[in-house]
Amino acid sequence: MFTLGIETSCDETSCAVLSGKNKILSNVVSSSLLRHQPFGGVVPEIASRHCLEQIEIVYQKALKIAGISDKDLDLVAVTKGPGLIGSLFTGVAFAKAISYGLDIPLIDVNHLEAHLSANFIEHDEPDQYLGVLISGGHTSLYVCEAGNFELLGETIDDACGEAYDKVAKLMGLGYPGGPLIDRLAQEGDPKAFVFTRPKLKKEYDFSFSGIKTAVYYLIKKEEVSDLIFQKNLSASFQGAVVSWICTQILKAVKEKNIKKVFVGGGVSANSHLRKTLIQHASENQFEVFFPPIELTGDNAAMIARRGIDLYEKGLKADLNLGAKPNLKIKAKGC
Ligand code: KG4
Ligand code: ZN
Predict the structure, then answer these.
(1) Pocket lining for ligand 1, CB < 6 angstroms
(2) Which of 52, 78, 194, 301 fits as disulfide partner to 27, beta carbons 3.0 to 4.6 Å?
(3) Pocket residue to mutate for ligand 1, from 87, 158, 164, most atoms within 8 A of Cβ
(4) How far apart are CA 63 and CA 25, in angstroms?
(5) DSSP for residue 11
(6) Tens digit of pLDDT for each residue in 168-180?
(7) Residue 334 pLDDT exceeds 60
Protein backbone atom coordinates (compact mmCIF):
# COMPACT_ATOMS: atom_id res chain seq x y z
CA MET A 1 0.00 0.00 0.00
CA PHE A 2 1.31 3.47 -0.94
CA THR A 3 0.19 6.45 1.17
CA LEU A 4 0.67 10.07 0.20
CA GLY A 5 1.10 12.46 3.15
CA ILE A 6 0.53 16.21 2.73
CA GLU A 7 1.63 18.77 5.31
CA THR A 8 1.05 22.51 4.91
CA SER A 9 0.25 23.78 8.40
CA CYS A 10 2.73 26.64 8.58
CA ASP A 11 5.84 27.69 6.64
CA GLU A 12 6.69 24.28 5.17
CA THR A 13 5.16 22.55 2.16
CA SER A 14 5.76 18.83 2.35
CA CYS A 15 4.66 15.67 0.53
CA ALA A 16 5.78 12.15 1.41
CA VAL A 17 5.14 8.64 0.15
CA LEU A 18 5.12 5.73 2.58
CA SER A 19 5.15 2.12 1.48
CA GLY A 20 3.25 0.06 4.04
CA LYS A 21 3.29 1.63 7.49
CA ASN A 22 6.93 2.36 8.05
CA LYS A 23 8.95 2.61 4.87
CA ILE A 24 9.54 6.20 3.81
CA LEU A 25 10.03 6.25 0.02
CA SER A 26 10.18 10.05 -0.14
CA ASN A 27 9.69 12.98 2.22
CA VAL A 28 10.12 16.28 0.38
CA VAL A 29 10.05 19.48 2.44
CA SER A 30 10.11 22.94 0.88
CA SER A 31 10.52 25.68 3.47
CA SER A 32 9.76 29.38 3.18
CA LEU A 33 12.12 30.01 6.10
CA LEU A 34 14.42 32.42 4.26
CA ARG A 35 11.50 34.64 3.30
CA HIS A 36 10.49 35.02 6.97
CA GLN A 37 13.96 35.65 8.34
CA PRO A 38 13.93 39.45 7.86
CA PHE A 39 10.80 39.59 10.05
CA GLY A 40 12.10 37.38 12.90
CA GLY A 41 9.07 35.09 12.72
CA VAL A 42 6.56 33.52 10.36
CA VAL A 43 4.48 35.94 8.26
CA PRO A 44 1.21 34.05 7.53
CA GLU A 45 0.62 35.60 4.10
CA ILE A 46 4.14 34.72 2.93
CA ALA A 47 3.75 31.18 4.31
CA SER A 48 0.43 30.52 2.57
CA ARG A 49 1.58 31.94 -0.78
CA HIS A 50 4.64 29.73 -0.59
CA CYS A 51 2.45 26.63 0.03
CA LEU A 52 0.34 27.55 -3.00
CA GLU A 53 3.41 28.00 -5.21
CA GLN A 54 5.11 24.84 -4.03
CA ILE A 55 2.47 22.17 -3.49
CA GLU A 56 2.32 20.78 -7.06
CA ILE A 57 6.13 20.87 -7.42
CA VAL A 58 6.68 19.14 -4.09
CA TYR A 59 4.02 16.52 -4.90
CA GLN A 60 5.61 15.66 -8.26
CA LYS A 61 9.03 15.49 -6.66
CA ALA A 62 7.77 13.15 -3.90
CA LEU A 63 6.30 10.76 -6.50
CA LYS A 64 9.48 10.87 -8.58
CA ILE A 65 11.80 10.13 -5.64
CA ALA A 66 9.46 7.35 -4.48
CA GLY A 67 9.63 5.89 -8.01
CA ILE A 68 5.87 5.54 -8.34
CA SER A 69 3.15 7.16 -10.43
CA ASP A 70 0.04 8.86 -9.07
CA LYS A 71 -2.02 5.81 -10.15
CA ASP A 72 -0.10 3.70 -7.61
CA LEU A 73 -1.35 5.73 -4.63
CA ASP A 74 -3.84 3.99 -2.33
CA LEU A 75 -4.51 6.60 0.36
CA VAL A 76 -4.02 10.33 0.89
CA ALA A 77 -3.52 11.80 4.38
CA VAL A 78 -3.52 15.54 5.02
CA THR A 79 -3.05 17.93 7.94
CA LYS A 80 -6.41 19.37 8.97
CA GLY A 81 -4.94 21.57 11.75
CA PRO A 82 -3.78 23.23 13.88
CA GLY A 83 -1.93 25.85 11.88
CA LEU A 84 -2.32 28.87 9.65
CA ILE A 85 -5.61 28.89 7.78
CA GLY A 86 -4.19 29.90 4.37
CA SER A 87 -1.45 27.26 4.48
CA LEU A 88 -3.81 24.55 5.75
CA PHE A 89 -6.38 25.27 3.04
CA THR A 90 -3.80 24.70 0.33
CA GLY A 91 -2.98 21.20 1.56
CA VAL A 92 -6.58 20.23 2.26
CA ALA A 93 -7.80 21.42 -1.17
CA PHE A 94 -4.92 19.63 -2.90
CA ALA A 95 -5.56 16.40 -0.97
CA LYS A 96 -9.29 16.48 -1.82
CA ALA A 97 -8.44 16.92 -5.51
CA ILE A 98 -6.06 13.93 -5.37
CA SER A 99 -8.63 11.81 -3.55
CA TYR A 100 -11.37 12.71 -6.04
CA GLY A 101 -9.20 12.52 -9.14
CA LEU A 102 -7.59 9.19 -8.30
CA ASP A 103 -10.62 7.81 -6.48
CA ILE A 104 -8.67 6.92 -3.35
CA PRO A 105 -9.68 7.39 0.30
CA LEU A 106 -8.87 10.63 2.12
CA ILE A 107 -7.95 10.89 5.79
CA ASP A 108 -7.51 14.03 7.89
CA VAL A 109 -4.74 14.19 10.45
CA ASN A 110 -4.13 16.28 13.55
CA HIS A 111 -0.66 17.81 13.17
CA LEU A 112 0.09 17.45 16.90
CA GLU A 113 -0.74 13.75 17.00
CA ALA A 114 1.41 13.31 13.90
CA HIS A 115 4.44 14.83 15.65
CA LEU A 116 4.23 11.99 18.20
CA SER A 117 3.60 9.45 15.42
CA ALA A 118 6.93 10.44 13.82
CA ASN A 119 8.38 8.12 16.49
CA PHE A 120 6.31 5.13 15.39
CA ILE A 121 8.00 4.87 12.00
CA GLU A 122 10.99 3.33 13.80
CA HIS A 123 9.49 2.10 17.08
CA ASP A 124 6.28 0.23 17.82
CA GLU A 125 3.58 2.25 19.57
CA PRO A 126 3.14 0.79 23.05
CA ASP A 127 -0.21 0.50 24.84
CA GLN A 128 0.78 3.13 27.36
CA TYR A 129 3.32 5.97 27.11
CA LEU A 130 3.94 9.58 27.99
CA GLY A 131 3.65 11.79 24.89
CA VAL A 132 5.75 14.95 25.12
CA LEU A 133 4.87 17.48 22.46
CA ILE A 134 7.30 20.38 22.22
CA SER A 135 7.07 22.55 19.13
CA GLY A 136 6.87 26.14 17.98
CA GLY A 137 3.17 26.31 18.85
CA HIS A 138 2.66 23.73 21.60
CA THR A 139 4.14 22.37 24.81
CA SER A 140 2.01 19.59 26.26
CA LEU A 141 2.27 16.34 28.17
CA TYR A 142 -0.17 13.52 27.47
CA VAL A 143 -0.65 10.12 28.99
CA CYS A 144 -1.48 8.02 25.93
CA GLU A 145 -3.28 4.77 26.62
CA ALA A 146 -4.80 2.41 24.06
CA GLY A 147 -5.00 5.20 21.50
CA ASN A 148 -6.62 7.73 23.88
CA PHE A 149 -4.95 10.91 25.09
CA GLU A 150 -5.19 12.37 28.59
CA LEU A 151 -3.84 15.89 28.86
CA LEU A 152 -1.60 16.14 31.92
CA GLY A 153 -0.35 19.68 31.44
CA GLU A 154 0.47 22.34 28.87
CA THR A 155 1.94 25.79 28.58
CA ILE A 156 -0.28 28.57 29.83
CA ASP A 157 1.43 31.16 27.58
CA ASP A 158 4.32 30.82 25.10
CA ALA A 159 5.22 27.44 23.64
CA CYS A 160 8.72 26.19 24.25
CA GLY A 161 9.87 26.67 20.63
CA GLU A 162 8.22 30.07 20.58
CA ALA A 163 10.29 31.07 23.64
CA TYR A 164 13.46 29.93 21.82
CA ASP A 165 12.44 31.99 18.78
CA LYS A 166 11.59 35.11 20.82
CA VAL A 167 14.79 34.95 22.87
CA ALA A 168 16.83 34.52 19.67
CA LYS A 169 15.07 37.53 18.18
CA LEU A 170 15.88 39.61 21.28
CA MET A 171 19.51 38.54 20.90
CA GLY A 172 19.44 39.51 17.21
CA LEU A 173 20.26 35.95 16.14
CA GLY A 174 17.58 35.36 13.50
CA TYR A 175 14.81 32.83 12.91
CA PRO A 176 14.21 30.03 13.84
CA GLY A 177 15.93 30.54 17.17
CA GLY A 178 15.96 26.95 18.45
CA PRO A 179 18.86 25.56 16.42
CA LEU A 180 20.86 28.83 16.79
CA ILE A 181 20.56 28.91 20.58
CA ASP A 182 21.19 25.14 20.76
CA ARG A 183 24.50 25.65 18.93
CA LEU A 184 25.64 28.71 20.93
CA ALA A 185 24.71 27.06 24.22
CA GLN A 186 27.19 24.26 23.63
CA GLU A 187 30.06 26.65 24.37
CA GLY A 188 28.38 28.70 27.11
CA ASP A 189 28.20 28.54 30.89
CA PRO A 190 24.74 27.35 31.97
CA LYS A 191 25.30 28.83 35.44
CA ALA A 192 26.08 32.34 34.17
CA PHE A 193 22.49 33.54 34.64
CA VAL A 194 19.79 32.19 36.94
CA PHE A 195 16.16 32.03 35.81
CA THR A 196 13.55 31.26 38.46
CA ARG A 197 10.63 29.01 37.67
CA PRO A 198 7.21 30.64 38.19
CA LYS A 199 4.73 28.97 40.56
CA LEU A 200 1.76 27.62 38.61
CA LYS A 201 -1.66 26.47 39.78
CA LYS A 202 -1.54 23.15 37.91
CA GLU A 203 1.47 20.96 38.68
CA TYR A 204 2.11 19.73 35.13
CA ASP A 205 1.69 23.07 33.35
CA PHE A 206 4.47 25.20 31.87
CA SER A 207 5.00 28.92 31.40
CA PHE A 208 7.78 30.39 29.28
CA SER A 209 6.81 34.05 28.99
CA GLY A 210 8.51 35.01 32.30
CA ILE A 211 11.88 33.66 31.23
CA LYS A 212 11.58 35.54 27.94
CA THR A 213 10.92 38.79 29.85
CA ALA A 214 13.88 38.08 32.16
CA VAL A 215 16.07 37.69 29.06
CA TYR A 216 14.73 41.01 27.75
CA TYR A 217 15.85 42.86 30.90
CA LEU A 218 19.24 41.12 30.90
CA ILE A 219 19.84 42.16 27.32
CA LYS A 220 19.05 45.78 28.20
CA LYS A 221 21.84 45.71 30.80
CA GLU A 222 24.54 43.84 28.87
CA GLU A 223 26.28 44.11 25.49
CA VAL A 224 24.16 41.73 23.41
CA SER A 225 26.58 41.51 20.48
CA ASP A 226 29.31 40.09 22.74
CA LEU A 227 29.75 36.44 21.72
CA ILE A 228 30.62 35.22 25.23
CA PHE A 229 27.48 36.89 26.58
CA GLN A 230 25.42 35.27 23.81
CA LYS A 231 26.86 31.83 24.55
CA ASN A 232 26.35 32.14 28.32
CA LEU A 233 22.84 33.48 27.92
CA SER A 234 21.96 30.70 25.46
CA ALA A 235 23.35 28.02 27.80
CA SER A 236 21.56 29.46 30.86
CA PHE A 237 18.24 29.91 29.03
CA GLN A 238 18.42 26.42 27.50
CA GLY A 239 19.51 24.89 30.82
CA ALA A 240 16.47 26.40 32.57
CA VAL A 241 14.00 25.34 29.86
CA VAL A 242 15.32 21.79 29.52
CA SER A 243 15.53 21.32 33.29
CA TRP A 244 11.86 22.29 33.66
CA ILE A 245 10.72 19.97 30.87
CA CYS A 246 12.72 17.11 32.38
CA THR A 247 11.36 17.77 35.91
CA GLN A 248 7.79 17.53 34.62
CA ILE A 249 8.53 14.37 32.65
CA LEU A 250 10.20 12.70 35.64
CA LYS A 251 7.27 13.59 37.88
CA ALA A 252 4.78 12.16 35.36
CA VAL A 253 6.80 8.99 34.83
CA LYS A 254 6.91 8.33 38.58
CA GLU A 255 3.35 9.28 39.47
CA LYS A 256 1.74 7.56 36.50
CA ASN A 257 4.10 4.58 36.52
CA ILE A 258 5.12 5.10 32.91
CA LYS A 259 7.81 3.01 31.27
CA LYS A 260 8.10 4.70 27.86
CA VAL A 261 8.34 8.36 26.88
CA PHE A 262 7.96 9.55 23.28
CA VAL A 263 9.01 13.11 22.46
CA GLY A 264 7.95 14.95 19.29
CA GLY A 265 7.87 18.39 17.66
CA GLY A 266 10.60 20.77 16.47
CA VAL A 267 12.19 21.21 19.92
CA SER A 268 12.71 17.43 20.19
CA ALA A 269 15.75 18.05 17.95
CA ASN A 270 17.43 19.91 20.83
CA SER A 271 20.78 18.35 21.68
CA HIS A 272 20.77 19.27 25.39
CA LEU A 273 17.24 17.95 25.87
CA ARG A 274 18.12 14.67 24.18
CA LYS A 275 21.29 14.18 26.25
CA THR A 276 19.63 15.12 29.55
CA LEU A 277 16.52 12.99 29.04
CA ILE A 278 18.52 9.95 27.97
CA GLN A 279 20.57 10.33 31.17
CA HIS A 280 17.41 10.63 33.31
CA ALA A 281 15.90 7.60 31.59
CA SER A 282 18.90 5.39 32.35
CA GLU A 283 18.90 6.52 36.01
CA ASN A 284 15.15 6.13 36.48
CA GLN A 285 14.30 2.89 34.67
CA PHE A 286 12.25 4.24 31.80
CA GLU A 287 12.91 4.42 28.06
CA VAL A 288 12.87 7.63 26.06
CA PHE A 289 12.45 7.90 22.28
CA PHE A 290 12.96 10.75 19.84
CA PRO A 291 12.20 10.86 16.11
CA PRO A 292 15.18 10.92 13.75
CA ILE A 293 16.27 14.59 13.44
CA GLU A 294 14.80 14.91 9.92
CA LEU A 295 11.36 13.95 11.28
CA THR A 296 11.35 16.36 14.25
CA GLY A 297 10.23 19.44 12.30
CA ASP A 298 7.16 19.70 10.11
CA ASN A 299 7.14 16.97 7.46
CA ALA A 300 4.61 14.89 5.56
CA ALA A 301 6.00 11.46 6.46
CA MET A 302 4.62 11.84 9.99
CA ILE A 303 1.25 12.90 8.54
CA ALA A 304 1.15 9.80 6.32
CA ARG A 305 2.14 7.58 9.29
CA ARG A 306 -0.63 8.96 11.50
CA GLY A 307 -3.09 8.79 8.60
CA ILE A 308 -2.41 5.08 8.09
CA ASP A 309 -3.11 4.40 11.78
CA LEU A 310 -6.42 6.25 11.62
CA TYR A 311 -7.41 4.60 8.34
CA GLU A 312 -6.71 1.18 9.84
CA LYS A 313 -9.07 2.13 12.69
CA GLY A 314 -11.80 2.67 10.08
CA LEU A 315 -11.73 6.48 9.94
CA LYS A 316 -12.14 8.35 6.67
CA ALA A 317 -12.80 11.93 5.57
CA ASP A 318 -14.99 13.06 2.68
CA LEU A 319 -14.86 15.93 0.22
CA ASN A 320 -16.52 18.25 2.74
CA LEU A 321 -13.28 18.23 4.73
CA GLY A 322 -12.19 21.69 5.84
CA ALA A 323 -9.13 23.04 7.63
CA LYS A 324 -9.23 23.80 11.37
CA PRO A 325 -6.61 26.32 12.54
CA ASN A 326 -7.26 25.72 16.26
CA LEU A 327 -7.69 21.94 16.14
CA LYS A 328 -6.89 20.27 19.49
CA ILE A 329 -6.00 16.73 20.41
CA LYS A 330 -9.20 15.09 21.59
CA ALA A 331 -8.14 14.42 25.15
CA LYS A 332 -9.63 13.83 28.54
CA GLY A 333 -8.80 16.85 30.72
CA CYS A 334 -8.97 19.38 27.83
O1 KG4 B 1 7.31 21.33 15.14
P2 KG4 B 1 7.83 22.52 14.44
O3 KG4 B 1 8.67 22.34 13.20
O4 KG4 B 1 6.68 23.50 14.06
C5 KG4 B 1 5.50 23.60 14.82
O6 KG4 B 1 4.62 22.72 14.67
O7 KG4 B 1 5.47 24.54 15.66
O8 KG4 B 1 8.68 23.34 15.53
C9 KG4 B 1 9.36 24.49 15.20
C10 KG4 B 1 10.06 24.99 16.47
C11 KG4 B 1 10.68 26.36 16.30
O12 KG4 B 1 10.24 27.16 17.36
C13 KG4 B 1 12.18 26.09 16.39
O14 KG4 B 1 12.91 27.16 16.94
C15 KG4 B 1 12.20 24.86 17.27
O16 KG4 B 1 11.11 24.08 16.84
N17 KG4 B 1 13.46 24.10 17.15
C18 KG4 B 1 14.33 23.92 18.18
C19 KG4 B 1 15.43 23.19 17.64
N20 KG4 B 1 15.17 22.94 16.32
C21 KG4 B 1 13.96 23.49 16.05
N22 KG4 B 1 14.29 24.32 19.46
C23 KG4 B 1 15.33 24.02 20.24
N24 KG4 B 1 16.42 23.33 19.81
C25 KG4 B 1 16.51 22.91 18.53
N26 KG4 B 1 17.60 22.24 18.13
ZN1 ZN C 1 4.81 21.09 13.89
Answers:
(1) 135-137, 161-162, 164-165, 176-179, 182, 265-267, 269-270, 297-298
(2) 301
(3) 164
(4) 9
(5) S
(6) 999 999 889 999 9
(7) no
